[in-house]
């Protein structure tokens, strides 16, 4: 459908504080926030500040190639984080949206052996998600426009191409 869920930067600020409150109220104190790049980086940064956690890690996952079009399976891109860094840690995985949930499942399974505990926080979770996140700000089944990716990459104002 052409219906979209539009999130503004202002609403995102509210969402990340509310998510952090839910996590704190639940008594979960992560040692490390693991963000899924690129969208999860915004969420992880906000949550880490709000939860007073100074340890952020990042994993790059490639899955979506366009609106609703994906690769067959999500893949972790290099550099893959070192599982040693998560040993016996309470990990909070942060992402923008759990849609099919395949991306979160990949990252969660990657963590599961070594960590003390792993939980997931997302701004949005869709009904079909095969991972049910512990912390969800809002549920929708529409395509979401996030403020950081709703606009195309910038072009030089003098008209010259970026890679020239
Ligand atoms: P999943 O593996 O759960 O299907 O998708 C996870 C990733 O796909 C998200 O982190 C996000 O980058 C992208 N994605 C999935 N659904 C949407 C959506 O509705 N809008 C946008 N902008 N990205 C999405």
Could you describe the 3D structure shown?
With 164 residues, the chain is of the alpha/beta class. Helices cover 24% and strands 34% of the residues. The protein has helices spanning 9-25, 39-50, 102-112; strands at residues 4-6, 32-37, 56-66, 69-77, 90-98, 117-125, 135-139, 143-145. The chain has a six-stranded mixed β-sheet. Helix 2 links the parallel strand 2 and strand 3 (56-66). The radius of gyration is 16 Å and the shape is globular. The relative contact order is 0.20. The model has no long low-confidence stretch (mean pLDDT 94). Guanosine-5'-monophosphate (5GP) binds next to strand 3, strand 5, helix 3 and strand 8. The site of guanosine-5'-monophosphate has 19 residues, from strand 3, strand 5, helix 3 and strand 8.
Quick structural summary:
The chain is built from three helices and eight strands; from the N terminus they run βαβαβββαβββ.
Query: Which geometry do the CA atoms define?
Result: globular
Question: Structural class of the secondary structure composition?
Answer: alpha/beta
Identify low-pLDDT runs. Answer: none
Strand content: 25-35%
Helix content: 10-25%
Number of helices: 3
List the bound ligands: guanosine-5'-monophosphate
β-strand number: 8
**How would you spell out the order of helices and strands?**
EHEHEEEHEEE
Distance between the termini: 38 Å
Give Rg in angstroms.
16 Å
| Residue-averaged pLDDT | 94
**Major sheet: order of its strands?**
4-3-2-5-6-7
Largest sheet: 6 strands, mixed
């Amino acid at each position: 459908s052409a219906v979209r869920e539009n999130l503004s930067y202002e609403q995102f600020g509210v969402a990340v504080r509310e998510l952090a409150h839910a996590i704190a109220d639940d008594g979960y104190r992560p040692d490390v926030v693991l963000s899924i790049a690129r969208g999860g980086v915004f969420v992880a940064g906000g949550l880490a500040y709000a939860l007073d956690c100074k340890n952020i890690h990042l994993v790059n996952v490639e899955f979506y190639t366009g609106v609703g079009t994906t690769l067959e399976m999500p893949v972790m891109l290099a550099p893959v984080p070192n599982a040693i860094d998560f040993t016996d840690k309470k990990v909070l995985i942060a992402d923008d949206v759990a849609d099919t949930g395949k991306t979160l499942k990949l990252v969660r399974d990657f963590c599961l052996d070594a960590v003390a505990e792993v939980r997931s926080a997302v701004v949005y979770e869709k009904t079909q998600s095969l991972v049910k996140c512990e912390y969800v700000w809002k549920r929708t089944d529409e395509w979401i426009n996030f403020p950081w990716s709703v606009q195309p990459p910038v072009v030089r104002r003098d008209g010259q191409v970026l890679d020239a």
